[in-house]
Amino acid sequence: MSVRKLGMAASRGLQLLFIALVIAHVCLDWDHPVLWDLLPLVLAYAVVTVANRWGGAPDSPRAAREPVEVAPPVTGRWSALNSPADRTPSHGIHAHGQTYAIDVLAEPAPGARPGFRWLWPLARRPEDFPAYGAPVLAVADATVVRVSDGQRDRLSRTSLPGLLYLMLVEGSVRELTGTGRILGNHVVLDLGNGTFAAYAHLQRGSLTVREGDRVRAGQSLARCGNSGNSSEPHLHFQLMDGPDPDAARGVPFTWQGVGVPRDGETFEAPPAAAALG
Q1: Partners of 142 in beta bridges
Q2: How is the chain split among helix, strand and coil, in percent rounded to 5?
Q3: What pLDDT does residue 147 have?
Q4: In terms of pTM, does the model score above 0.85?
Q5: Per DSSP, what are the bridge partners of residue 199?
Q6: How far apart are CA 268 and CA 57, in angstroms?
Q7: How far apart are CA 51 and CA 276, in angstroms?
Q8: d(Cα 229, Cα 28) in Å, to the nearest integer?
């Protein structure tokens, strides 16, 4: 286990200890300074800082690599969100190997995807979104090294109250319970040459591969879903330098025939990316 992974595990434990101390302080009326309850949070920050320094921070210069060209992980008309073409880290943090991650949402036609609403409806069924159930494809010939299934597909969080709930409550709980709960149902492929591809938020029960399987570029792996830390059905895709998102650094990518679409940019995955069966 890497130093960084150990550090993240210890940090989560210390955050849980902080929550337990606060609950105990309120419920048991402990007679001790409230500031002592903050000690686990301070230690959690220190542990992560030291682990990143010893283990090599994900954004350290020695981690920089040239973009790896792969096929698109979807086919058809999609739009990009949280793109590394606009900023890195694309999702605001380097953790979980997502420095160069991207989110893509199906846009088969203008207006086909329900938009954000301030108040109502609070949530929508995943079936209301065109991305839900769309095939997710292998971006290269590869070996399946990690498979996780079984997490449910939730209602969308595409209203202001729903989004706040996702960010302030759901997201915090998933961060404490581990990367697997953030990614939801997911697959990791070993592309060779120290490059791994991760696909997150997949539809429960749709995975067609198992660990150890060999897959071909364009082969269907699963279907797009809304599991994990997701506001609506979409695919979260990233390249990493290891199979474990807790320990890996992000690797930049470019998609054949597409490049790296910017935030809000609509792109058409070329026919060559279609599933082979």
Answers
A1: 215
A2: 30, 25, 45
A3: 96
A4: no
A5: 187, 237
A6: 35
A7: 43
A8: 33
Q: Which residues contact 247 (CB under 8 A, 6 or more apart)?
A: 1, 2, 4, 5, 55
Query: CA–CA separation, 95 vs 131, rounded Å?
Result: 26
Beta strand pairing call for 185-192 and 266-269: unpaired
Closest CA to 245 of 140, 132, 91: 91
Structure tokens belonging to residue 150: 């079984």
228-240 in b/e form (b: 16+ CB < 10 A) is bbbbbbbbbbbbb
In this structure, the number of other CB atoms found within 10 A of the CB of residue 184 comes to: 26
Tokens of 4: 């960084």
Strands 68-70, 253-255: pairing kind: parallel
SS3 call for 160: helix
Peptide bond connecting 121 to the previous residue in cis, omega within 30 degrees of 0? yes
Can you tell me which residue has the tokens 């960084």? 4
**Tokens representing 187?**
């697959």
User: For residue 180, which of 229, 139, 144, 248 has the smallest C-alpha distance?
Assistant: 229
The dihedral formed by the CA atoms of 90, 95, 97 and 101, expressed in degrees to the nearest 10 = -20
Task: Show the tokens assigned to 32.
Answer: 């001790």
Q: Is 33 helix (H, G, I), strand (E, B) or coil?
A: coil
Q: Is 239 helix (H, G, I), strand (E, B) or coil?
A: strand
Across 31-35, 100-104, 200-204, least confident range: 31-35
Instruction: Give tens-digit pLDDT for 152-180.
Output: 998 887 777 766 765 666 656 666 667 77
What is the 8-class DSSP label of residue 167? I
Amino acid 252 reads P
Task: State both tokens at 136.
Answer: 């997710």
